[in-house]
Write a structure and sequence with these properties.
Blueprint: H1 7-14, E1 26-34, H2 44-53, E2 64-68, E3 73-78, E4 82-90, H3 104-108, E5 114-122, H4 132-139
Antiparallel strand pairs: 1-4, 1-5, 2-3, 3-4
Length: 148
C-alpha cells in the first residue's frame, strides 16, 4: 500500500487542535463535511445556533472555536478542504445521540456534503454494561436523522 503524498500533512492538520474535554457519561457526535463549492460561509449555520441561544458568535474568519450552548458543547473546526463539527452532551442511558438535541431543520441546512458522521457514548465506570440486544440495535442502526 502506498501513502498519499499529503497524508502526513493532512493527518497533522486534523489532529493539530485539541479535542473537547469530556467527563463521562457523555454522548458525542462528530461530523465532517465538505466545504460549500460556491465558497459560501460554512459558519452561517453555526451563527443561527448562536443567535438562538444568545451566544456571541466568533470573529469572522475564525478557523476553529468551541462554545457552550444551553445543553451541549459545540465545536467548529475548518480544515483545508472540509469542516468538522463536534457536539457533546451529558448522558444517561435513555438518551439519543448528541446531535438529536438540535432541530432537524438545522442539520438539513448544513453546507457541503457529509464525509463522516460518528456517534459515541462514553460510559462512566459505574454504568451497567449494555446487553447484547441493546448493542445489536445500536450497531445495526441504518437510518440517520435528516440527511445523516
Amino acid at each position: 500500500m502506498r501513502d498519499h503524498e499529503l497524508g502526513q500533512v493532512l493527518n497533522d492538520e486534523i489532529h493539530g487542535r485539541p479535542g473537547l474535554a469530556v467527563l463521562a457519561p457523555v454522548r458525542l457526535t462528530r461530523l465532517a463535511l465538505t466545504l460549500p463549492s460556491n465558497g459560501g460561509k460554512p459558519l452561517a449555520n453555526a451563527t443561527q445556533l448562536y443567535d438562538a441561544f444568545g451566544v456571541k458568535p466568533p470573529q469572522e474568519g475564525v478557523r476553529h472555536h468551541s462554545v457552550e450552548l444551553a445543553f451541549l458543547l459545540f465545536k467548529y473546526e475548518r480544515q483545508g478542504e472540509f469542516c468538522r463539527i463536534s457536539l457533546t452532551a451529558q448522558s444517561t442511558r435513555n438518551e439519543h445521540e448528541a446531535i438529536s438535541l438540535l432541530s432537524l431543520g438545522w442539520i438539513d441546512e448544513l453546507p457541503g456534503k457529509r464525509l463522516a458522521a460518528i456517534h459515541t457514548e462514553v460510559m462512566s465506570k459505574n454504568m451497567k454494561t449494555p446487553t447484547a440486544v441493546v448493542l445489536k440495535k445500536f450497531l445495526a442502526m441504518t437510518t440517520w436523522p435528516a440527511r445523516m
